[in-house]
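Need Acyl-peptide hydrolase's 3D structure for a figure. Predict it.
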Amino acid sequence: MATIWVAATCALNTDVVQAANEQYLQPEDYFELKYVDQVDVSNVSNDIYFVKHQFDRVNDQKTSHVWVYHQATEKFQPIDIQSDASFTPLLSPNQNILAFVSVVDGQARINFKDTQTGHIHHSSWYPSMPSNLTWSPDNQTVAFTMFVEQPKTLPIPLEGKPDNANWAPAPKLIESTRYRLNGAGYLTPGAIQIFLQSTTASAPQQLTKGEHSHSGKISFAQDGGGIYFSAKRYASPEFSHFNTDIHYLDLKTHAITSVVERDGPDDMPTVSPDGRYLAYTGYDDNGMIYQNKALYVKDLKTGKVSVLTAGLDRSVARLQWRHDSAGIYFSYDDQGKTQLGYSDLAGDFKVLTDRLGNMTSGRPYAGGEFDVASNGMVAFPIANTQRPPELAVLSEGKISTLSNFNGKFLDTVTLGQVEALWSKSKYDDRPIHGWVIYPPNFDKSKKYPLVLEIHGGPMANYGPHFTAELQMLAARGYVVLYMNPRGSDSYGNEFAQLIHNNFPNHEHEDLISGIDALIKRGFIDETRQYIMGGSGGGMIGTWMLGKTQQFAAAAIMKPAVNLYSFVLTSDFYPMFPKYWFNGKPWENTEHYLKHSPITYMNNIKTPSLLITGEADYRTPISETEQFYQALKLQNVDTAMVRMPHMSHALTARPSYLQQKLEYILWWFDKYKDRLEEK
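Structure prediction for Acyl-peptide hydrolase:
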């Protein structure tokens, strides 16, 4: 429950004025929030299946379960309450069977529920987690992808080991290029394969074999005779980070033929309901740090390929054909909002809504899912700065929010208001977009401390979305500024590509321009400016500490500070030399040092809190340790918070979200008077 902070006893670092009966959002309130995503709407009943997420305070974990909204009764009902978790609801083409994945004690299976009788048939328990579920046109089977272990024989003998001996664990022999992955750890030898699961059988049928992984979206041909899928089925795929091709798998012969092949990430194959067309996303890879994914349609009869979004200059994400094959619905991010667009086959385009909401646990990233019924009704999680995504529908041009899972709690909490901010970069006058969260009961005649929060990526974007973490900062009296500096996506190719072989660099001036714009309004205490950011935002944050000493304190999460060592320890190391840093470190050492924040340690004086997961393999904790030790050598105040077992996301255990924010609040308060005293 939100803690009541009475103004007379809440002198902690704030100028917020709070009535005795008001409640503000606090770090422990993560456990009160609910989120909606993974929607699937029935073409028959308009019932909407979705996944409801929340946090379990006792077991310290996120829980996810499939629910349904019954259109006729306007009631919500859980579909699966026996499992530890359930997700990926997917209705059969005739709408009579709901497939979904459930997990019990770490094991997963696919469930088939009859939507009329309620009877559920379960598959056998799988050895790995199934993904990319896709129904066959005859409603009899579901195709999916799943990892298959491929044990390797050790090249050395192990002689002389007695029976029942208690020897040390065997050493791990690593020969693969991709040997560890953030969130998964050190990888077991194997590959992701395609399977078929009958609605009446127990065990699935494996369709693909071999060393190649098939991890992308899959789609049945209209006649059910084959499956389209995306994969890297070529030599040395580990060195081609983005390049995926689209193939066709014949279900009778198991022969695989190429359908779309080029140097670029062709993905999301989606067959039209009439079987005539194949929609997919992709681009011709030119080696840039970022490129928009376009929407393509291939006529499977003539072979002609059309680009439907040539004039959009935004990156296309999720796809869904209209029920009559006349056009395609798709999502894309635009200036921090996730839009739902529709294009007919001639490329005529329109926007249906810009309110798609993303299920994020802390910060305001864009993104969101949708599903469109045959009558045109759209179901989606709705974006709202004052609420996590709730279930909503768009019908006949009108949006209706159906759920209110957060109302019981958030209706009692006063949140900060969110306002858009545009400023001109101090580097080149480019317009830079951002948002401001004001403390509850904000009074512009008073002075407030400022927190600048920098998003990760760096090719990502923030927007006007609910953010528990930043609202909690506002609840403690901070004005919070978050922006989309150069390199952010959703503003076109050219803006994102400004950081090609030039990152980090002028993001500093972009972000300072937003701070200056707020200072000019007169309500910012200039001696109490703070900076925080994670991942790519942590890189930019540490870079800015070498450029300015205007911040009273910094909170840096999971940064990369030494680009030479970062490239050689990150799980994505094959990608960075080609797309980010203009060559391998030993080939272009000067460039790597020029853009490494640690190069500028002599300029850094700001007390810095560092927070990283100990199992982070994207920006490994060794980068944090380097910065910590460099700060110590420079006699700059610092502290390092290591999150046990946590990967790059830092979200697997909700209590770490709470503790991360508590540490940040502690650190900022500790140095609230530093610049004033100086």
